[in-house]
Structure formats: structure tokens, C-alpha cells
Amino acid sequence: MTNVFERLGAATLINAYGPMTRFGGGIMGEEVAAAMREATQYCVDMPALQAAASRIIADVTGAEAGIVTSGASAGLLLGTAACVTGLDAAKMNRLPDLTGMKNEIVVMRGQRNSYDRALRAVGVTLVEVGVSDRANGTGIRDADLSEIREAVGERTAAIFYLAKPQALPRLTEVASLAHELGVPVLVDAAAELPPLANLKRFIAEGADLVAFSGGKMIGGPQGSGLLCGRRDLVAAALLQQLDLDYTYDEWNPPPALIDKQRLQGVPRHGVGRSCKTGKEQIVGLLTALQVFARESDRDREARWQTLAERLAGLLQGLSSPSLAARVIADPDGSGIPVVELRLGSARRHVNGREVLHGLRSGSPRIEVNPWRPEEGLLILSPACLREDDVPAIAKRFGEILGAS
Ligand SMILES: *Cc1c(COP(=O)(O)O)cnc(C)c1O
């Protein structure tokens, strides 16, 4: 039996790593897939659809407004553009040429990461503060509030914050300093769901804009995300993403989200036009968000725990002397249980890299989190597995490790 990918000539894989972009994310729930399918059969006014999205996103996040984007990365790009231009159509039309505009984003050096290119794509310069001593294991500080204060000036469009459980200084402190200095805080919370409480948390802590990924654990379309926060900034972000081929007189933007009176003209195709979000993505993300918000963390964890225990049980049942499997209930505060595999024994050393190679070179290919392969430690996540993947993974480990 073949699937759509195989018919196209692209082999599918078993994804025991998690919703990684390079593996196509996860497995979409029926309710979300059905809503997307239904959306394909109609046309709709896109600004009105984003205004409807805004009501739903505001409700679940506690923010003033929100829009669906084509990913958290797109949300960061649009959010940066919004912080630079505000509701000034002339400035929107000039991006990424920032001559005469605010052109700096202050970022804590220890929070620099590969995704912050989305900010630079708008043309801004990242002004780094602090020294990531904590990451080096040699110190106790990353960046001080005083260093952030020092770096913020006339050219500062925003302060960027990567929301990770270990992030310091705390978002509440950074946000209150930012507001004292009159600049917004843009938060990257792409991978911070679950826990459910994080939907509201960063807004409650003072963030002006928060970007979440829709294609990770909330189970939306892989190419989706959401951006929520201050209404004027969300509107500025949306205006730089939409197709706005209207004359000013004929233009009728949804008043709940966009204040037409505050704009001196209709912006041209904006810097975010390349982040177009289709109606199917919007409907899919909103459905996923509602499904996600409906389920308690405990129920979600229990669902994954069951799958993780089945997988760990089958792996342990291989009774290979070179394999020990155990479920770790909550390795990172997200509540997503994982299976930790310890390869090798005192008598027989097993190189994790060889096992990874074996997993990848079989059919179907199996991807797991390499974690610390040299020490024989691999991590398997239940989050993107199909039911029949579980026995298939155990069987492959049995073949590779030569167990019965
Ligand atoms: C995944 C991720 C992103 C990108 O999210 P997409 O929805 O794939 O665009 C950005 N920042 C961080 C920290 C991430 O983990």
C-alpha cells in the first residue's frame, strides 16, 4: 500500500524525534484535517477571517489581538516589522530600507539563536547585551537589567526575548524596564506549548507581542503559527502580510482589528507578503488551538504517557543485554514524556552512532533524538508517532542489536 508521499517519490519516515520542521512536523488530528478540508471549498474575505482569528486568539491568550501567521518565524518577522513601523503606511512601504527609522533590536547575547534571522530579515541590527557566562558554566549572569537599560536608545525598535524556562532576567523584569523606556518586547515562544498555561503566561508577564509555532505541539498545520499581543502592533503586522490592492476609499478593513482612520493610505504589498497565510492554514491553526486549549495538560500527558510506556515496554521486552529503556515523565517542564534508551552494558559497548545509522538506513527510516550518542543515550518522543510505529521501532531495534 502506498501513501501520497510515496506516490510522489518521497519515502516517509517514522518520526520518534518530535515535531521537527525537517521531518514534516507531526501527525495532524482528524478534527483539524477535516476543518482544513472544508476550508478548501470556499472563498472568504481574508482580513475578515484574520479578524475572526483575532477574537479566538485573544480569548485563549488574554492578548488584545492576534493573527495567524505562516509559522513562529514569520510571526517574528512580522512582529519586528510592526515594532519598526507602527501604523505608518509610508514606513511600511519603505522596508527593509530603514533610513531614518528605528533600526535596532536589543537582544541578550545568551538568547541569540538561529531563528533570530527572522528579525534581521526586516533590516534591523541586533544590539547584543550581556555575556553568556551561565552557558559557559563559569559565571552566574547572562545580561543585567542595567546593561539592557544602557543599550536602549532612540533607535531601539524593540527588545527581543527568547522565552525559555532558564531565561534570565525574568520576562516580567525585562518588560517593566522596556515599558519604562517606552519600547515594546517581542517574545519568541515558538516551542513553549504545552503547558497550556503558557498560552496566557507571556502576555500576562508583560510581552507586547508573542510568536508561537502552530506546527509543533499544538498540532496545527506545519506551516502555521500565531502572533498575539497589543492590538496596534498586531494590526501593523497584519497590514504587512495581507494583499491590500484597494484604493483608500474602497478599503474596508475590519474595524475591530484595523483602525482605518489611523492610516494615511493603504500600504503596498509589505515586507511580510512572502509570509502569506492561506485560509486553510488559518482554519487549521484555529481548530488546533481550540482542540489544544480544550484538553487539560494532565489528559494530554496521560495520552502520551500511555504511548511512551508501550514503546518502552516493547523495547525493554527485547531482553537485549545492551538496551535499557525507561519513561521520563517530564524531562523539560513541558509535560511531554519521553523514552530514554541506554545502549550498551558493562560487558559490551554499543556505539549510539552506529545504532542511529541502522535506524536511518532501514525502511522506513526511523529518526530519534540523538541526545548523547557517544554515551549510548538516545531519546524517543511519542508525540509524532502513529500507533503502528511503536512495534515497528521495537522490531528495528531488535534487528540492530541482535536481540530476539
Ligand atoms: C521552532 C522555532 C521557531 C520557528 O518556528 P516555525 O513555526 O517553524 O516558524 C522559532 N524559534 C524557536 C525558538 C523555535 O524553537
From TrEMBL:
UniProtKB keywords: Pyridoxal phosphate, Transferase
Parts forming coiled coils: none
Keyword Magnesium: no
Keyword Nucleotide-binding on entry: no
Organism: Hypericibacter adhaerens
Cofactor: pyridoxal 5'-phosphate
Organism lineage string: Bacteria, Pseudomonadati, Pseudomonadota, Alphaproteobacteria, Rhodospirillales
PANTHER family: L-SERYL-TRNA(SEC) SELENIUM TRANSFERASE (PTHR32328)
Family: Belongs to the SelA family.
SUPFAM superfamilies, alphabetized: PLP-dependent transferases
Protein name: Putative transferase
Xref: InterPro entries: PyrdxlP-dep_Trfase, PyrdxlP-dep_Trfase_major, SelA-like
One of the record's GO molecular function terms: L-seryl-tRNA(Sec) selenium transferase activity
N6-(pyridoxal phosphate)lysine: modified positions: K216
